[in-house]
Design brief:
Radius of gyration: 24 Å
Strand order of the largest sheet: 2-1-5-3-4
Distance between the termini: 101 Å
Number of helices: 8
Structural class: alpha+beta
Length: 274
């Protein structure tokens, strides 16, 4: 009886280290700047055997470990939670805020790039975000905008019952969408005018839609808009790059709401604090 020929079985990479994915080799062109008053420049680094499953910040960690071992100064960059929540991370990657996907830099993975790619990495570019060192920038201008009016007046003590003040579902949904802003600054970095309007609009909108935010509504919008102008951010021309780059997908509709509130406040006689 003649034996029947069988094709060789398919081999799985599970339990077979030799079949694992090969690491990526990349060329990194990174902005290096020792301080705000020092002239910066792009510096080229080669990095090898990078796992496609690494996050972008983990890849920078690997580079910094190599630089430290070589006695060089590691690349400074902002980071904290690394879960896409805190808004600390943020760099321009090949000219795009946070990189090729609509997410935070810490949630961008190296599988978004190809083996052999050259990647340009720069800090946010805006006069209101001065470079501290390398890729780290000073975003305290955002804090000052919030301090100008991004709050509500509530009595201290026992918290009120959650459902004591009814809120229409459409308003609560829109307020929550605006409140997802994490203040990363991608909107400013992506905007050709370096405008912070989407950030300010999100902070104005989520409070202005809720009953608790009504007492300061007029003062809030005029003071926050005035503060963003004092900080040196550019004017909004409705290009839309801000919303396209926002990792939380905040709509430009919030800017329309801000403009509506601003006109109403000015007509009502509200004026910014000097």
């Amino acid at each position: 009886m003649t034996a029947t020929r069988h094709d060789a079985p398919m081999r799985s990479s599970v339990g077979n280290p030799g079949a694992e994915k090969r690491g990526m080799n990349l060329t990194l062109r990174i902005w290096r700047q020792q301080g705000p008053t020092v002239k910066g420049k792009m510096v080229t680094y080669k990095i090898t055997d990078i796992s496609p499953d690494m996050s972008f910040l983990e890849m920078l960690d690997v580079l910094n470990e190599q630089l430290i071992m070589q006695g060089d100064d590691p690349v400074a960059f902002d980071h904290d939670c690394r879960e896409g929540i805190c808004g600390m991370c943020g760099v321009m990657i090949n000219g795009q805020a946070h990189g090729p996907q609509q997410t935070t830099t810490c949630q961008l993975h190296m599988r978004s790039f190809a083996d052999g790619d050259t990647i340009d990495i720069e800090p946010w570019r805006a006069s209101a975000f001065p470079v501290i060192k390398d890729l780290a920038v000073d975003r305290r201008a955002f804090d000052r905008i919030i301090q100008a009016g991004g709050y509500i007046s509530v009595p201290t003590g026992t918290a009120p019952e959650a459902h004591a003040t009814p809120v229409p579902k459409a308003d609560s949904d829109a307020a929550f969408d605006a409140a997802t802003c994490i203040g990363c600054g991608a909107c400013v970095a992506a905007c050709p005018n370096a405008s912070s309007m989407l950030f300010t609009a999100a902070k104005v909108t989520h409070l202005g839609l809720l009953p608790q935010g009504q007492p300061e509504r007029n003062d809030r919008v005029v003071n926050m808009v005035a503060q963003q102008d004092r900080e040196g951010f550019g004017g909004c021309t409705n290009i839309g790059e801000c919303s396209a780059a926002c990792p939380k997908g905040i709509s430009m509709e919030t800017i329309s709401r801000l403009n509506h509130d601003l006109l109403g406040a000015l007509r009502a006689g509200a004026r910014p604090k000097s």
